[in-house]
């Protein structure tokens, strides 16, 4: 669904605000829809990216800490692209370590591990790079751009587009309820929003993890064909 279709559904089917003059201006509802998409992406990690420019990092000799792009929510995988000098590239995944697991913080060499400093939005490599290396990141990110034109389409998967209207309706009722007459409706819309996000997060997790090995190895029943 594009922004025009979402606005029509939100105004007519959800808020019942189809008589002019409208209770809510278009610019206000569009802002709430964009906030909903950003919150959905942040909470579900549904937008996975390894192709944008900010998912490639070139190290600096002697520098261990690097600032991540503000659009990155979470780093899912980080690897080193190595060139053998003959144009053959290989990819080596780096291990995710805590700072206490990194033995000598000042050693220099080819990085083989990293840790994330979430509060500072920083990435720290170990050992400290002794040359220029190309680092590739696979990240969960925020939407790259806010919707503004009628034909703009949300970046999140299409099956979750309509749930953005629940969040937008809840926010709209909060901002236009001086006597708290709409608080019950607001609570219902926000509760529905939270349920949609929960279900989406579970679905995305299941799609990426596949059949969980733990479910197979933790089976405590008897194997087929055994009778004792």
Which regions contain 5 or more consecutive residues with pLDDT less than 50?
215-228
Using only C-alpha atoms, the radius of gyration works out to 24 Å
Count of spatially separate domains: 2
Structural class: alpha+beta
User: What is the residue-averaged pLDDT?
Assistant: 86
Oligomer: single chain
Strand content: 15-25%
The rounded distance between the terminal residues' Cα atoms is 58 Å
List how many beta strands DSSP finds. 11
Helical fraction equals 25-40%
Order of helices and strands: HHEEEEEEEEEEEHHH
> With helices defined by DSSP (H or I, 4 residues minimum), what is the helix count?
5
Tell me the major beta sheet. Answer: 5 strands, antiparallel
Shape: elongated
Short description:
With 228 residues, this protein is of the alpha+beta class. The chain contains five helices and eleven strands; from the N terminus they run ααβββββββββββααα. The protein has two domains: 3-46 and 142-207; 48-141, no CATH class.
Structural summary, described in words:
- With 228 residues, the chain is of the alpha+beta class.
- It has two domains: 3-46 and 142-207; 48-141, no CATH class.
- Helix content is 33%, strand content 21%.
- It has five helices and eleven strands.
- The chain has helices spanning 3-14, 26-44, 164-175, 183-209, 213-217; strands spanning 48-49, 56-58, 65-67, 72-83, 89-93, 95-96, 108-109, 113-117, 122-126, 128-129, 134-141.
- The strands form three sheets. Strands 1, 2, 4, 5 and 11 form a five-stranded antiparallel sheet that branches. Strands 3-9-8-6 form a four-stranded mixed sheet, with no helix packed on it. The protein has a two-stranded parallel ribbon with strand order 7-10.
- A hairpin with a 4-residue loop joins strand 8 and strand 9.
- Helix 2 crosses helix 3 and helix 3 packs antiparallel against helix 4.
- Residues 215-228 have low confidence and may be disordered.
């Amino acid at each position: 669904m594009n922004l025009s279709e979402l606005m029509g559904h939100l105004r007519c089917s959800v808020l019942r605000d189809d008589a002019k003059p409208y209770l809510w201006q278009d610019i206000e509802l569009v802002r709430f829809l964009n906030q909903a998409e950003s919150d959905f992406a942040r909470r579900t990690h549904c937008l996975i990216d390894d192709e944008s420019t900010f998912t490639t990092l070139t190290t600096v000799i002697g520098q261990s800490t690097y600032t991540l792009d503000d659009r990155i929510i979470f780093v899912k995988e980080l690897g080193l692209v190595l060139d053998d000098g003959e144009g053959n590239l290989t990819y080596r995944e780096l291990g995710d370590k805590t700072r206490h697991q990194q033995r000598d913080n000042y050693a220099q060499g080819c990085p083989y591990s990293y840790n994330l400093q979430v509060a500072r939005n920083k990435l720290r490599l170990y050992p400290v790079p002794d040359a220029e290396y190309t680092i590739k990141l696979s990240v969960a990110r925020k939407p790259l751009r806010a919707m503004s034109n009628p034909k703009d389409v949300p970046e999140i998967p299409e099956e979750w587009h309509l749930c953005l209207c629940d969040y937008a309706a809840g926010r709209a009722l909060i901002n236009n309820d001086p006597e708290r007459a709409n608080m019950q409706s607001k609570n219902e819309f926000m509760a529905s929003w939270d349920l949609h996000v929960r279900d989406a997060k579970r679905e995305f997790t299941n799609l990426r993890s596949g059949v969980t090995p733990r479910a197979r190895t933790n089976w405590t029943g008897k194997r087929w064909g055994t009778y004792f």
